[in-house]
Specification:
This protein has two domains: 3-55 and 353-365, Urease, subunit C, domain 1, CATH 2.30.40; 60-346, Metal-dependent hydrolases (TIM Barrel), CATH 3.20.20. It has 14 helices and 15 strands. The chain is α/β, with parallel strands linked by helices. Strand 8, helix 4 (115-124) and strand 9 (128-135) form a beta-alpha-beta unit. Helix 5 packs parallel to helix 6. The structure holds zinc ion (ZN). Zinc ion is lined by residues 62, 64, 201, 256, 308. Zinc ion (ZN) is lined by residues 62, 64, 201, 256, 308.
Amino acid sequence: MLELWTADWVHLGDGPRPHAGLVTDGRTVLATGEAGELARRYPSARRVRKGRYLGLPLANAHTHLDLGIAPTFSGPFPDFVRYVIDRAERRGRAEAVQAARYAPQRLLGDIAAREEVVDWWLEEGPASGVVYWEVLGLVPPEREAEVLRATRERIERWKRRERRDGPRVGLSPHAPYSLTPGLMRGVVALARELEVPLQIHAAESPGERAYFLRREGELAAFFRARGWPLDLHPTGLSPIAYLAELGVLDARPTLVHGVQVDEADVRLLAEHGVVVVSCPRSNVGLEAGLAPYHLYADAGVPLALGTDSRASAPSLDVREELDFLAARGLDYPRLLDWAVQGGRRALGLAPARIETGSEVEQVEFW
Ligand SMILES: [Zn+2]
């Protein structure tokens, strides 16, 4: 029994199209193309409208499953940092397993801060993509080597356990302000040497930008309140310019957020071929604002979408990020492409296609 599948938007690899479809025998894809043409070629095929979307899977390119599904925080960024630090002790495998049930996408970029969560991903995690081991620390220079040694040992051990259809292991130096320059450089060098993907949070809040440029604002106050030294990072550079100067952008990390950027920052990201993962509901909830999508489009910076954690987003479903941005006037098919091919690019995967001979199991619809 043949079926001709269609939907409002069909993305088979060349971008979302409204009048496309595919013919299947239930196991493989027999033909793809314009729906009217397929109906003429396969007159016996039963027409099945699959809903709003049919095609390649969407990726949630940035989340933290081990932060669980705790109540979502909204408010200023420094208060959020305190909220996450308070919760960090409770992170673990149970939280990640529970959150995975609420994460509909099966192509994920997940940042893990507990070893047992990476172990779970490699043994039985129900998704592919990348699980990034998070590293952060404003440690004295003499301790950097020790952190890097432990990180190397973990990544080498985990890399040997990657499954064919499971996630790859990656590294995430948390953010420009939460690692010393030496440790940041070391983690990035390690990722390059071990050939693992990198993901980093940067240019998220206005406070992060003000801290780097002038040692002012909420993040500088947060450092002062905790008694942390204020001379760990250079001043007078934006967070993106700092990462460029340190050589971090040469390693082409996936950059999460990219909200508080100017044209010079965007140019740097474009020159280095960096993919930006935008998490708009989290950014608005934490009063960081919305990323300047028009600047990224003009500069040709590829975009992907992520939910971030349930600590700052109301769900782990990236489709709700699309709806959120579409309601603010962005073009829905373009957003779909960010989530599909942009997401693959952010996770270091080659562009995909659904074509004659593809297994129908690879086709997503909703
Ligand atoms: Zn995050």
